[in-house]
Every structure is written in C-alpha cells, then in structure tokens.
Amino acid sequence: MHTLRKNRPLRRIVLAGAATVSGMVLLLSLKPHTAPGVAGLASPAPAGASGAPSGTAGSGGSAATGTRTLTGDSVQTRWGPVQVRITLKDGKLTDVTAISYPQENPRDQQINSYAVPQLTREALTAQSADIDTVSGATYTSEGYRQSLQSALDSANGS
C-alpha cells in the first residue's frame, strides 16, 4: 500500500505538515557568519593610502637588521584590488597592514571586516605567506597571500 493514497487525505495532510515544519526548522537553524571581537577593531586605511614608498628601508641596509617597511604588489581579484604593507624588524615580520582591499559595498565590508584581521593574525603567526584561506573570503585571501608574498620576496631580494 502506498502511503499517499487518495482515499487517506488525513495522512497526506500530516506528512505535508511534518515536511513543512522540518523545512522551517532547518531554515531557521542557519545563522550568518560573525567573527568574535570585530566590533573593537580600528578602521582600515583607505584604499590606495600609502605612508611609505614601496621597498623603503628604515634603519640598516641589510635584509636581516633594522626596521623596514615594504609594500607588496597590488593584486587584482574578482571583487577588487588587494595590497598589503609589511614591517620587518631584524628580519622578523612584526606588522602586516592591508592598505587596499574590496570595500565598495556593505557585503564586501562585512566579509572583509572579519577576513582581513584573521589573515593578518595568521601571517604574523606563520611569519610567512603560507596562511589558510578564510572561509567566505576566498578571493580576498588569495590576493592578500599574493601581495604578502611579493612584499616578503622584495625584502629577501634587497
């Protein structure tokens, strides 16, 4: 016997109601991604702002001594350019600042408000561009990684 036979309309109503309730429960269980501690972050530098020219050295002429600030290449992603500036002190990565990244619309701002700080933390922890992609910010993560690598390469090449 088939469970949805026409001579049993009450069974069909109960099954349709149960399916509707199950679907609503699943739909309501979805939550938007939010990162902890995002509200207290300082606002990012405006796109294209640059405090130090690319490849300038602070004190010291060799790659392993002194403090140097280097700007990575601007990497064009699907949603806009991504560029980072790094600070090296005695050969150690001490600061990474995203100076340009997609922030043209509220969705870009929402995604990058949690992605950029996470990428920065990972870069400082890894001391390299070998960092994980942030879920939901794949293009920004890839551009960030490429720009960071170009800045590190220019530090090693000079």
Task: Explain how this protein is built.
The protein is an alpha+beta fold. It has two domains: 30 residues, no CATH class; 91 residues, Sufe protein. Chain: A (Alpha-Beta Complex), CATH 3.90.1010.20. 39% of the residues lie in helices and 17% in strands. The protein contains three helices and four strands, in the order H-E-E-E-E-H-H. Strands 1, 2, 3 and 4 form a four-stranded antiparallel beta sheet that branches. The termini are far apart. 27% of the residues are buried. About 19% of the residues have low confidence.
Provide keyphrases for this structure.
single chain, 158 residues, alpha+beta, Sufe protein. Chain: A, 2 domains, 4-stranded antiparallel sheet, 3 helices, 4 strands, 39% helix, rod-shaped
Task: Report a brief summary of the structure.
This protein has helices at 9-28, 106-126, 138-157, and strands at 67-71, 75-77, 80-89, 92-100. By secondary structure, the chain is α+β, with helices and mostly antiparallel strands. The chain has 2 domains: 1-30, no CATH class; 67-157, Sufe protein. Chain: A (Alpha-Beta Complex).
